[in-house]
Write a structure and sequence with these properties.
Distance between the termini: 26 Å
Strand content: 15-25%
Mean pLDDT: 90
Number of helices: 5
Helix content: 25-40%
Structural class: alpha/beta
Length: 163
């Protein structure tokens, strides 16, 4: 399973998401113009020393990224989504797609994938959740549905029933 960030703007979010990707075995796609430097030094604060271990794919634009994920199911996360994140049946080769922190996903991408627009429920007291928190909730739900493949417990054993 892969995570794609379309034109992310905040290095701390991307660093945190990179750490989640390392911890869950997911690849991270950074797509288009980035709002920051992606050197290890620039993202180290949020990603700690894990940035070097991120399965990172940097795509210069959406066309190149879309070609790289052609044939895979895309799930676009948006406050305008119509499918609740825990009611989607995720598959191992899916790509979870997230937009910019300030503007969300590009309108044309949303329009082309309207049937796969996903949301996380919140109260009306906030506009949206933090991007890194949203990615974390989404990927853990997707992996939970699949039995957490490749993920282990803190003691190195396989993920099983609650202890």
């Amino acid at each position: 399973m892969d995570i794609a960030l379309i034109e992310p703007e905040i290095p701390g979010n991307t660093g945190s998401i990179g750490r989640v990707c390392v911890g869950t075995g997911c690849a991270l796609h950074l797509v288009g113009r980035l709002g920051f430097d992606i050197s290890e030094r620039a993202v180290r604060r949020a990603g700690l020393d894990y940035w070097k271990d991120v399965d990172l794919h940097v795509e210069p634009d959406r066309a190149a990224w879309e070609a790289s994920v052609a044939g895979r199911r895309l799930w676009l996360f948006s406050t305008a989504g119509t499918l609740r994140y825990d009611q989607v049946a995720y598959e191992a080769d899916d790509v979870l797609v997230f937009g910019r922190e300030t503007k969300g996903l590009p309108a044309d991408l949303v329009e082309r994938h309207r049937a796969r627009l996903v949301y996380l429920p919140t109260t009306t007291k906030i506009r949206s959740l933090n991007l890194a928190n949203t990615v974390t909730a989404a990927i853990y739900e997707a992996l939970r549905q699949q039995g957490f493949p490749g993920v282990v417990t803190a003691d190195g054993g396989p993920v099983g029933e609650a202890r």
